[in-house]
Specification:
One of its GO terms (molecular function) is kinase activity. The chain has 289 residues and is an alpha+beta fold. It has a domain of 128 residues. It contains 5 helices and 20 strands.
Length: 289
Amino acid sequence: MVRGSAAAAALLLLPWLLHAAAAGNGSCARSCGGLTVQYPFGFSPGCEIRLGCDPADGTAWLGKTRELGLLVSNVTARALFLTLRPNCSRRLNASVEALFTKAYAPGSQNGLVVSSCSSASQADHIRNCSVPPSAYLDNSSQCGRAAADSIRCPVLTRPTSVPDRFLNRTRMQALAAECTGLVSAVSYLDAPAPALLLATMELEWWMLGPCRCSSHANCTQVTTPVAGQEAFRCDCPKGSEGDGFAEGVGCREGPKCNPSKYLQGDCGKTIQIVLLVAACLLRWAHARC
């Protein structure tokens, strides 16, 4: 009976321990539906870099609403990759507001496809696209004849210096006064081989302040494009895993992790401590029999 009672108590304590483990990671929810992201990203108000998310299907996005269509397809140690399906109803001014924040901005390797350009717009940087709109627009694009006829591809230069590392927000705001829709985007990738990623936009992200990386992590310093502030990113060296941040889980060896190091924090995941405590409770129950 003692063994059964103790085992039941251990199982009853497990949900509380799991909750305590989650609380130990702060008030940020880093999972949504089937999607999980690492520090500093998350899906709740307590997160350092907050993403929108639909828990029903695990779709993440930037901006105030999913309807803006800035869908997050991947998050790496350096960049956010967005999927921009062709859509003539996507407002360029609202997109600019969502794309430029204190934590991320689009790189200058991105090209834009815009629509609803005014007939008075004859600027040299606003030109016809080399590919006709009919090649990539469909019924879901919400592009009427007028919008499709006014689709343009602004000329963007390749980065040649630090200021050109990002798209210029002021120029994009001026562009929004001439062309009101952001139909889609294309991103240039030069490694491992030159390629153009259609319906894709790449954003570089950072944390403000001086480097605050864990030991053995790499720190990349960044100057923010709008305010010129000091910022940084952390990543773990090859053979290690984790987010690399001192305020995150840091870096740890790959899948090889000694259970004796759980309580020292070397394995990085509080959930492992929870399972260890639960196992100890069950072992204690067995010894009492």
